[in-house]
Amino acid sequence: MATATEQQQGAGVHLLTGSEVMAHVCRLADVDVITAYPIRPYDTVMQYVSKFIAEGDFDADYIPAESEHGQFEIVKHASACGARVFTGSSGVGWLYAMEPLAVTAGLRLPMVALVGCRALDDPGAFGTEHNDAMLVRDLGWMINFPDTAQEVVELGLLSYRVAEDPRVYLPCAIAMDGAFLTHSQATVRLPGQEEVNAFLPPYDRGDLLLHPDNPITIAPQANEDWLMEVRRQSSEAAKNAYTVLKEAHADFSKTFGVDTDPFLDEYMTEDADVVLCGMGTLSLPVKVAIREMRKEGKKVGMVRLKWFRPFPTEELRASLSRFKAVGVIDRDYSFGSPYHGGIVFNEVKAAMYGADKVPHMKGFVCGLGGREVLLEDVKLMADKVISMGQNDTADNDVDWIGVRD
Amino acid sequence: MAETSEYNIGTQELPLMGKVNAIPEKAVEEYFTSGHRTCQGCESALIMRLMAKAAGPRSIILGSTGCMYVANTTYYSTPWVVPWMHTQLGSSGSAATGTAAALRALMRKGKMKEEPINVIAFCGDGGGIDMGVSSISAALMHAKYNLAIICYDNESYANTDIQISGASPWGANTTFTPPGKKFRIMHDCWKKNIAAMYAVGHTRCNYVATADASYPADLIDKVRKALAVKGPAFVHTLDPCPKGWDYDPFYSHKLGELAVETGLFPLWEMTDGALTYTGISARQVYGKRRRKPVREYLETQGRFHHFVEEDYEYFQSEVDKMWDDWMVPGVIPFKVNDPSKK
Ligand SMILES: Cc1ncc(C[n+]2csc(CCOP(=O)(O)OP(=O)(O)O)c2C)c(N)n1
Ligand code: SF4
Ligand SMILES: [Mg+2]
Fold first, then answer.
1. CB of B127 closer than 6 angstroms to any ligand 1 atom
2. Which atom of ligand 2 lies closest to the CA of B45?
3. Using CB atoms within 10 A as the burial measure, which of A101, A172, A390, B128 is most buried?
4. % of residues, chain B, pLDDT over 70
5. Are residues A302 and A186 in the same domain?
6. pLDDT band at A2, cuts 50/70/90?
7. Among the residues of chain B, which ranges form H helices?
């Protein structure tokens, strides 16, 4: 095992995988209770976390659970008692925890979980697909999709800050592309403990704390008398997440001296005619392909969504309205959906409805099961979007790219 | 030894009752009060009351889905005086573990005032004998967490309208196992021997007991011992349920007694691996009292009204086996082969 603790842990630049960075975020956030259960590819994070704990690099109750259901229930209850928690899973493991995933959000309990995105077996497959993480998108979970190990620092710390904000109190999933990010090393600048302490206040459960000094009853039977009001409050919390995230991101930029956009990563968009839009590590082949296409005079750019929940509707409308045509790349599927498009495609279309200027939009499904997205694939998609823009005609077909006929 | 279990804040010292008339003197306060909506004669609700009384004010109680949640804990009329939180049907073990882990981590790290706080998670037989077995089993492994799991066993999935569970007695008429013309006995499994199963399989669990609300002092003492012991503990209670067992609520207490008197539900406790029979069961084991035939117990309940003579006989013979054939009567069914007798 790559020995995380052998590395120098202080602030500075290190060669780290996405999982390792997540373990450092846990250490820097001084997480109190962590639960683990093995499934690839998320589980490497627990190898690093457990080693940190064994070496005394940080102090937490660390519990290898008996199943994902237990894993997520344990941290759910720890969160209700005021503990900062971390856990994670992948693919069918994440689904095995679906019941706790739903109630954690329903009970407005902060929790940060790593999803090492993975195809849902059967048939068996380890590679990345976003359907696992996406299954919680309607439940109140926040979900972000980092594209680099460096971005895990930003999205990891923001996840804790926003999840634990009393205006939000919602769980947050960090959806990392399996292998491409969980297992790939890159140079990462880690922040120092003092900066992190300045940015991330302690978790305070306030008058919702489950403790003998505060003898409340949590989650009594509510039925039709009250459930609708409870759901409405969750909806308000999910709305608040957007504002709180913006606020926290501004604070993050100031504290750590970085300059990123809270919601969108735009690449070569200033003069672009068309853009490709997607999430996660897809950005790497897309950016490289864009650079090559630019040499051929094709004005292509990229708009990457960093957060899928809260969904940055206003920002995305403002951004995409600037282009003639947009191609949305899904590393997921939504069988039987409108035009048989992916989840992101349908969501982006819904967000664009009624905007002053709506670009032509086309959906692509690619990279499923961890299949590599090649430069040719990206160029093919870009060409289709370019011709849609040039002909000024809509093309509702959703194309599968890089698939055998 | 540098085990991660080094830190343990300890447990509360709670006086034992010994006799029922000590309860008003030693545990008069109620922590499960008005507000619940359980059936008249519900012994599971009585378990809740006695359990909360035994635990006292410095406790956190977690409750799995089931009658003791749905009929018991309604928004705006909670009966719980102590902090209480719902947990999922199969996660009483996880709920107790998560709660104990949070308290332990926060106290060790100086983020919460150090104090022993009782952690109890309860579950029904559906939640503790079927669905939650894996989570309870995991919870009973951790010596570092002071917690008690209390399984209130009303012998069916009562809240969802009385369906069989792994704890339902052989032959019982439930909504999933109705007797019919072709098959009189639709439920042909014998009740799972859960307390012994947890005791045998978890050597770091230092306290396991069976109890029954018809013997309230014994029950309170067992809950208190479960809380006083360091590490995890498990208590299994048998609770007559007028709706599910189909009898007049008047007989709840009587049926609780008969379950023990017939030898069907022996009372015992296991402390640090040593087994002690308690109450009437102890007298039965040491030959000072005879077991009553199960017939009266069965005939009092509508769920057995389809029984014919051979069913009563079969039922009795199975109970007899528990006492005559089992290595540890009424508790552990192994037989040890003697190689010299091959
Ligand atoms: C995962 C899950 N499956 C099914 C249910 C439906 N359900 C609610 S209460 C209940 C009965 C539980 O039985 P038991 O644990 O014996 O408690 P009792 O109702 O008998 O008190 C069931 C099956 C549920 N709440 N959760
Ligand atoms: S159905 Fe049984 S367990 Fe449920 S409330 Fe009624 S008596 Fe109690
Ligand atoms: Mg039951």
1. yes
2. 8
3. B128
4. 100
5. no
6. very low
7. 23-26, 43-55, 67-70, 92-108, 125, 133-139, 194-201, 216-228, 242-245, 252-261, 279-285, 295-299, 309-324
The answer to whether the CB of B241 falls within 8 A of the CB of B155 is yes
- Domain co-membership, A276 together with A252: no
Q: Which of A256, A280, A312 is the last residue of a domain?
A: A256
A219 to chain B, closest Cα gap in Å: 6
Task: Find the B340 Cα to ligand 3 centroid distance in Å.
Answer: 45
Task: Assess whether A228 and A281 both reside in one domain.
Answer: no
| B55: nearest CA partner in chain A | A212
Q: Omega of the bond prior to A122 within 30 degrees of 0, cis?
A: yes
Per-residue pLDDT, B129: 98
To the question of domain B28-324 being in CATH 3.40.50.970, the answer is yes
Each domain of chain B, given as residue ranges in start order, spans 28-324
pLDDT at position B13 is: 92
Q: Are residues A231 and A287 in the same domain?
A: no
Considering the domain architecture, whether residues A157 and A59 belong to the same structural domain is answered as yes
Which residue lies with its CA nearest to atom 24 of ligand 1?
A: B89
> Which DSSP category does A294 fall into?
H
pLDDT-derived band at A3 (thresholds 50, 70, 90) equals very low
> Minimal Cα–Cα distance from B22 to chain A, Å?
26
Residue B303 has pLDDT above 80, yes or no: yes
Out of A78, A202, A214, closest to residue B101 by CB? A78
Regarding whether A239 and A174 lie in a shared domain, the answer is: yes
Q: Do A33 and B101 touch (CB under 8 A)?
A: yes
Element (H, E) at A156: helix A149-163
Q: Residue B4: what pLDDT? A: 80
Structural domain total, chain A: 2
Quote the minimal CA–CA distance from A213 to chain B in Å.
8
Chain B positions touching A62 (Cβ under 8 A) are: 4
Can you give the pLDDT at residue B83? 98
| Mean pLDDT computed over every residue of chain B | 96
Q: What is the mean pLDDT of the segment spanning B13-27?
A: 94
Q: Ligand nearest B249 Cα, by number?
A: 2
Which residues form the domain of A104? 4-256
Confidence of residue B120 (pLDDT cuts 50, 70, 90): very high
Nearest-angstrom CA–CA distance, A286 and B57: 60
* Domain match, A239 and A321 both: no
Report how far residue B242's alpha carbon sits from residue B40's, in angstroms, rounded to the nearest whole number.
Answer: 8
The three-class DSSP label of residue A201 is coil
Is residue B284 in contact with ligand 1, taking CB distance under 6 Å?
no
Q: Does the structure show a pLDDT above 80 at B259?
A: yes
**Using a 6 Å cutoff on CB, does residue B36 contact ligand 2?**
no
At A156-180, the pLDDT tens digits run 999 999 999 999 999 999 999 999 9
CA dist A151 and A153 (Å) reads 5
> Is pLDDT above 70 for B201?
yes
CB A172 within 8 A of CB A105: no
Find out whether the beta carbon of B241 lies less than 6 Å from any atom of ligand 2. yes
- The last residue of one of the domains, among A234, A256, A278, is A256
A73 vs B340, more confident = A73
Instruction: State which residue of chain A sits closest to B66, comparing Cα positions.
Output: A221
pLDDT score at B5: 77
- Among residues B47, B16, B52, which one has the least CA distance to residue B31? B52
Q: What is the CATH number of the domain that holds A397?
A: 3.40.50.920
**Structure confidence at residue A394 (pLDDT):** 85
A58 and A167 part of one domain:
yes
